[in-house]
Automatic annotation (TrEMBL), chains A, B:
InterPro entries noted in UniProt: Homeodomain-like_sf (IPR009057), HTH-type_TetR-like_transc_reg (IPR050109), HTH_TetR (IPR001647), Tet_transcr_reg_TetR-rel_C_sf (IPR036271)
Residues in the signal sequence: none
DNA-binding region location: 39-58
Top-level taxon in the UniProt lineage: Bacteria
Name of the protein this chain belongs to: TetR/AcrR family transcriptional regulator
One Pfam short name: TetR_N
Domain annotation HTH tetR-type: ranges: 16-76
The entry's keywords: DNA-binding
Coiled coil residues, start to end: none
Chain residue ranges for the region called Disordered: 199-219
Amino acid sequence: MARETVATETAPEELTPGARKILDAASALFYERGITAVGVDLIAKEAGTTKKTLYDRFGGKDALITAYLRERDLRWRSWLTSWVDGHAADARPGEQLLATFDALAEWTRQHNPRGCGFVNAAAELPDPAHPGRRVIDGQKRWLRGYLFELSTAAGADDPGRLADELALLHEGAVVLRGLAVVADPVGSARALAEQAVERALSRPRAAGPPIADTRPDDR
Amino acid sequence: MARETVATETAPEELTPGARKILDAASALFYERGITAVGVDLIAKEAGTTKKTLYDRFGGKDALITAYLRERDLRWRSWLTSWVDGHAADARPGEQLLATFDALAEWTRQHNPRGCGFVNAAAELPDPAHPGRRVIDGQKRWLRGYLFELSTAAGADDPGRLADELALLHEGAVVLRGLAVVADPVGSARALAEQAVERALSRPRAAGPPIADTRPDDR
DNA sequence: GGCCGAGTAGACAGATCGGTCTACCTCGCC
DNA sequence: GGCGAGGTAGACCGATCTGTCTACTCGGCC
């Protein structure tokens, strides 16, 4: 029983060819049609494999859902960090914070026509005990933490507040991308972010003990 | 066939007692557990009625989903407008725009522990032809239009841009409410909104022809 | 009294759900 | 040559899905 769940524990590169095809098919179907609405039969058929392989490699649908979320999370993290590192490495303070919105713009263009995959998944996983929920929480916490780091490095007067605000703008932009009601949500978010960053940097943090982060609950 | 769909076309007050119980039960279950995951048998059982009544009154699950979204939409609209009218009727310009976030704060406290019901529903209704999608689009467009009206009344220099920004902040706040990663998302959104409103009102609109709205696609 | 809208009770249908199973094939490695 | 991991093919299970149906009850209205 412990061996079968190996696919959800190790790096995605170590997946068996069959498991790789299944995870690819499941990722596309889960995002495009919803998690509950997609059955394991369809996934196996779309992947060109059989349910046997699916259950041998992943153990069950819940584990497959979790693997889908985990891989999407990893992809987003490396996308964002490599973009920020590459496009604003030695720019003026605050530029890296705004670069996250440029990364988001390109990400949504390529991978997010239907809104945030994690928000959508959370809507379908109401049970807080579901393993996928931990991945979703981790993704949101990671982004907020990353923004907190960049805010601190930029010298924001209250990096915790700025991180909260920028995380909010990220979420709002991604969600509105999926609902065609605002012309350029990422652009609007970036404009608001510029204001927020400007304000946070206009009153530079006083020298002294570093300001503690004010995250809601770190358990 | 035309008669059966009466419940989805008329005001919710005109619902039959049985239909009322079914819609109430369905609304709670759809929001708390997700739309696809909830079956009609459970809805009928939870409502203390039978499937027969459900199909006689609503015609089918899709129509029931649409009725759920429609009623939730109406409730939110009247909640927001009455709050804004009551709490900031004769205040200084821009105050009404910020009052929408106070209304949102109380709304999420009472009705939105699991994020935006419309965003969650959109995640489960990928088919653009589903009648529920029109309700979701209508809700988002209405909010954006309402914010545009308030922005214009407040004398914003670019009410279209301000409406886009405030709509974005609303969405971000509601979504983040459902994911406990930011301490007070509505508060953060309100803080950002204050900045945006202040900026939009600091350069009052020049006299002359009214600025045309720049909505993405009004069909 | 007669009628009809509304509701209850519950069987029923066909499809699909997640999940298990047997049987067989193929490939690389010892 | 033998062995085991990975895969294919497909039957099978019980449960649940949406949706339909018959039969009966109740209450208000003409």
